Amino acid sequence: MVSRVIPVEPFDLVIFGGTGDLARRKILPGLYRRFQAGQMTDDSRIIGAARGELSDEAFRNLVAEAIAEFLPKTQQDPAAIADFLKRLQYVAVDAQGENGWPQLKALVRDDVVQAFYFSVAPALFGDLASRLTAHGIAGPQARVVVEKPFGRDLATAKALNATLAQHFAESQIYRIDHYLGKETVQNLMAVRFANILFEPLWKSEYVDHVQITVAETVSVEGRGAYYDTSGAMRDMVQNHLMQLLCLIAMEPPYHFDPNAVRDEKLKVIRALDPVRPEDIVRGQYVGLKGQASYLEDAENKNSKTESYIALKLHISNWRWKGTPFYLRTGKRLRARASEIAITFREPPHSIFDDAEGWRENVLVIRLQPDEGMNLKVMIKEPGPGGMRLTQVPLDMSFADALGEAAQDVPDAYERLIMDVIRGNQTLFMRGDEVEAAWAWADPIIEGWERRGERPQPYDPGSSGPEDALMLMHRDGRRWREIR
């Protein structure tokens, strides 16, 4: 199978924070990959913007170093890199002052697609938006990309939305969540809505429960000061896991259209029941074998911020009433793994005597690593001696099924930036969607803060706190092994 690459229109992309960590690690190497794949036209340009004074040549050297550091050698073509660097320029801009804006205006063309990536702290979003319009740089069709965290509660999210709305229409604002750019996440919609096999079974009548897991082995070292003001709930659940939940639970949209898809996601968030305190488990990793604890990494010995959280959710609509959704995410866990597991109910009656050997059918969507899908079904165990049942996987690894095309699958940031240039908002969050997610999350956070609860300790390399296991055990269910 050969992956098709469709070039986008000519564009000028301005990256505010163009010398920052995200730009170096993801945005600029990703843009080089899209250039190498033939998706960028020769007259497209990338303009780095930051406070520091740099020449174009110095910025190009920085980008060349980032490509060398963050992309595998097999993807580094010296001739392609040299050609890509020619399309880069740099301007020093003061987001909160007037320095550099006339120079930026002179660089940005008004006869191509204009895109402005705010790879900066949210506190600067308003300053950038106001100066882009005040200096006449952003045209009426310009697009702005904003990174999370998009607020830390409902009030700040509303304030950010209002600030951006003073200068840009909602159709111009692209709130980026890189999880939605992952190939397997998008395949959730294809699996559900392009296959009659699954859609009739996608409801509480046939689904026993759903598990969503995002496990990380890394600590918060190096970003502890930021993380300690957010925690797993704000950093992961309110955005990444919420988006995965919406794609699993949403109704079929009338068309694969940005607003139609986001309308259905919004309905899911609004249908979420309030979460009871007993259905929440918060954890904090401890130090072990010379490794620092969360308190040490956060440099706050009295911190009550969670590095792990597990929740049991219910959706009050006709499709999902009675089916629990179990979500968990955490740092310093046993393995790096992100997956969604849909566990189907047992048949109402078994004709086989081997009841103890019975296992449910499970559809597992692996987001990382080894992206793919796995459907576990029951078959007869080979050999004589009667009808003994065993569970086997019907496995589809993207790498195996798609061959070379799977190796060329764009990184999430690559795909999403190209969608910005195309003007496709399907995989970006809408303002009311962000606000609805915070409206659901705020009471949960306020509840444990009011009760003064401390997260439970858990060992690095484990699956999280013991009470997280009990969250499912009391329902007669078990978490899937993190591996």
Automatic annotation (TrEMBL):
Reaction(s) catalysed by this chain, per the record, are: D-glucose 6-phosphate + NADP(+) = 6-phospho-D-glucono-1,5-lactone + NADPH + H(+)
Key words, A-Z: Carbohydrate metabolism, Glucose metabolism, NADP, Oxidoreductase
InterPro entries named among the record's database cross-references: G6P_DH, G6P_DH_AS, G6P_DH_C, G6P_DH_NAD-bd, NAD(P)-bd_dom_sf
Keyword NADP part of the UniProt annotation: yes
Which pathway does this chain act in? Carbohydrate degradation; pentose phosphate pathway; D-ribulose 5-phosphate from D-glucose 6-phosphate (oxidative stage): step 1/3
Q: Pfam families, per this entry?
A: G6PD_C, G6PD_N
Start and end residues of each stretch annotated as Disordered: 451-470
Active site per the UniProt annotation: H240 (proton acceptor)
UniProt entry tagged with the keyword Chaperone: no
Q: Provide the binding site for NADP(+).
A: G17, G18, T19, G20, D21, L22, A23, R24, R51, K148
Q: What is its EC number?
A: 1.1.1.49
Q: What range(s) does the Glucose-6-phosphate dehydrogenase NAD-binding domain occupy?
A: 14-187
UniProt-listed NCBIfam families: zwf (TIGR00871)
Record's function text: Catalyzes the oxidation of glucose 6-phosphate to 6-phosphogluconolactone.
Q: Which protein is depicted?
A: Glucose-6-phosphate 1-dehydrogenase
Taxonomically, what lineage is the organism?
Bacteria, Pseudomonadati, Pseudomonadota, Alphaproteobacteria, Rhodobacterales
Gene name for this UniProt entry: zwf
